[in-house]
User: What shape does this take?
Amino acid sequence: MCISLECLIISSRQSKPLRKVLGGFKFKKLLQMKDEEIELNTAILAWKKGFPKKLGKITQSLLQRWLRETHGLHIHLYFIDNVLGYQATITDIISNIELFESKCFVPYEQALEEGLYKALELIKTK
Assistant: This one.
């Protein structure tokens, strides 16, 4: 079963009701998802490491993109099915070496927050 956004849009246009196609998943809820703002201690560390203050509030997605594009650090989250939680890993994009692996967190956002904070700690201050 496809659950990508593109697939959901295509499925919603088909004659079958979306609820039947996705087994009860509501497309409306997907569109209402909001990007989480980062915690204060993560924001302070991000500014110390050079994140532009002019961008205003820092969301998890924005910081994740900045780390990837500016510092070559990719944060990837894995779903660990035997504990039903998420684990963050940080990989150096250039060398493809895994630099950090977090413990398991139940909410996705908490695992991402941990990965963001650890990635910021890995950046050498100029």
